[in-house]
Amino acid sequence: MSSSSPSGTGDDLSERRGIPAAKFIQDVETYLSQSSLDSNSALAFHQERLQQYKVVEMKLLAQQRDLQAKIPDIEKCLEVVGTLEARKGSGEALLADFEVSEGIYSRACIEDTDSVCLWLGANVMLEYSCEEATALLKNNLENAKASLEVLVADLQFLRDQVTVTQVTIARIYNYDVQQRRVKQVTSTAVTAGES
After folding, report:
1. Burial class (CB in 10 A: 0-12, 13-18, 19+), 21
2. How far apart are the C-alpha atoms of 185 and 177, rounded to whole Å?
3. For residues 93 and 111, is the Cβ–Cβ distance under 8 A?
4. What is the pLDDT of residue 194?
5. If residue 137 lies in a helix (H) or strand (E), which one and from where to where?
6. Which SS3 state, helix, strand or coil, does residue 65 take?
7. Is 182 exposed, middle or buried (0-12, 13-18, 19+ CB in 10 A)?
8. pLDDT means per 10 residues in the chain (195 residues)?
9. Among 35, 57, 16, 17, residue whose Cα is nearest residue 172
10. For residues 172 and 42, is the Cβ–Cβ distance under 8 A?
11. Are 113 and 84 in contact (CB under 8 A)?
């Protein structure tokens, strides 16, 4: 969102994590005169800003979906590591079904183990002790939940900016229609007075 504000003063706009705040326009006529814009230019600017908000919203929603899918996976991994730690030293093997590929499962007999392998992504898997794995997974879970909270707040802020921008577009459009009617009535009155 690198386009500058039409008034040329970007200082008055606050932002949240790179998302510029939409300024509510109380008086359209004053806004247009101060920004040296006509109605069409102002409408074009705000419609472009609205499209930018929509693009950012799509990106944030994709990130939110990813995090919402990631959190249950981390919780499931924590549960499995906890189960392995609880069974450690009991002498009995753990019979587990695990997913090899999407929809393909295999059965494994897990003896006492001191370590687990965690898939980190990007074709990387590392072996950790159960304690290290638990600490890492808890840390990742906390980070994912914190990121999700920030993302939800960003989405709410963005929705507020979309609403303000839509209201601004409507106000500018209505002002433009009103001005055209006034000009039309004036020109009709002038032509009627001349005849």
Report:
1. middle
2. 12
3. yes
4. 64
5. helix 130-194
6. helix
7. exposed
8. 45 71 92 92 95 96 96 94 86 85 91 87 91 96 97 96 96 94 82 63
9. 35
10. yes
11. yes
Distances in whole angstroms, Cα of residue 152 to Cα of each of 5, 21, 41, 140: 26, 16, 33, 18
Type of residue at 126: L
pLDDT, residue 193, reads 61
What is the token pair recorded at 109? 């007999």
pLDDT at site 12: 42
Q: Nearest 5 degrees, angle CA 52-CA 58-CA 60? A: 100
Rg (CA), the chain: 29
- The pTM score is 0.75
What distance in Å separates the CA atoms of residue 60 and residue 56, rounded to the nearest whole number?
6
